[in-house]
């Protein structure tokens, strides 16, 4: 066995409390190198009385490593542990003290989980595990009150530019809630709605005022109430990394320079604050001089922004915040932000915009979730771009799953497109078969799925601003087949808890083959999803022990003959099988 490939880290995503009674342990070994891993556990004060060997299951793999996991329920909420690895007739033990062929005398030198403190367990809102989100850009969704539209508003459905306004507002969203209810979504995420000069509103002028072109506080409160009456949660977008240059404190700095009482609200490298040769003398979002970066370590700035977060929960009863450019703000701020929000609404859902590996923000003291762009990249790389085969796809998805504890994976914010990326239909070359494969994967995968407005009726668009098309409301111009497909898959997910919280595992994912099979397994249900990500008709086989399978979408019984199920799939086709346990 390759000892140098063994890895475990205590009190991390490798050893964490899943709930008040259960610890999840994970360990890494070289791919296809170790046959059996056992967690050797016991109470450090009574090892003999509480000793238990817990078999570990190989739950995932990537290109280099296998990942093993076990759930341990210690008698006294604490325990010491090590790992026993076996391959053939070779057995070695790994503890905190090292690796060797002889088992060290326990518990000295063993890893420890000192105690399960419930207050320290990372818990995300239960409703987020159940949710299907729908992202809306208010300016592009629907015009409800033309009298508040900006001057020079463009004709609905015209080509979007970075400067164009189309007049969508909160009243328009309210009037189209039947569409959301019919589709089956249970939560909406609105891009910024506070006063700002742009169409996207990511350059806030007044955090305490709904943009007048969208409505007012009364309209926001009405929208939230109506959504709640329909069982729909509402999450707003908070832009705390930067403001608009029109933000009054920054205007004060422009006028008074170093003498401004707000001079330390921003990161001014050199006075006067100005743009020289395209580069501002103050920190900004990117290098956009019209978006100066806030100094969130300043106590006054922190108090102001935390008051913003609290105000809209109190005033409008919103259900959470999506946090723009969250990775560029200090962790101290986010820890206080979480305390503020959770004290007011314990089940508020906090989503950070972090485009890469996000463990530092997902330790239970900051965010509940992040926008899982790595998920979108891998899924569309496979289904849209043929960037890798089934084996590579499974390896990359497994690697993503191993980044975080299970309770994080259950609420990670999965998406295929957004206001910052090309539309998913455009990404798949407008091939609806490929799109449907990606959507099936999204809605049968672990995590919280989000649909970008209009994807369900066939909106197309490249990168920003082309992806920010106006919603199409004329049914004869909508792709109703696609709409009904989304509706069907959303209903399937909502009807079966295993698709929301059950175990995810690949059953078939081979090199040189773009056909995959994976499962969702939980209490009472077992799903197997078959996918043919190729342009040819195919037959796939997989061994199964029972003959009680049916098509989850049609109810048709699907036989197992001599321990093998054989499925015929059309080009870019799929089948979803299920059985009761």
From TrEMBL:
Q: Where is the Glycosyl hydrolase family 13 catalytic domain?
A: 135-493
GO BP: any one term: carbohydrate metabolic process
Kindly state which keywords UniProt assigns to this record, in alphabetical order. Glycosidase, Hydrolase
Q: Which InterPro entries match?
A: GH, GH13_cat_dom, Glyco_hydro_13_lg-like_dom, Glyco_hydro_b, Ig-like_fold, Ig_E-set, Malt_amylase-like_C, O16G_dom_2
Q: Name one Pfam family in it.
A: Malt_amylase_C
**An example Gene Ontology molecular-function term:** hydrolase activity, hydrolyzing O-glycosyl compounds
The reply on keyword Hydrolase is yes
Which first-to-last residue range defines the signal peptide?
none
This protein's source sits in the domain of life called Bacteria
Family note? Belongs to the glycosyl hydrolase 13 family.
Query: What PANTHER family does this protein's entry cite?
Result: ALPHA-AMYLASE FAMILY MEMBER, MALTODEXTRIN GLUCOSIDASE
Q: What is this protein called?
A: Glycosidase
Source organism per entry reads: Paenibacillus methanolicus
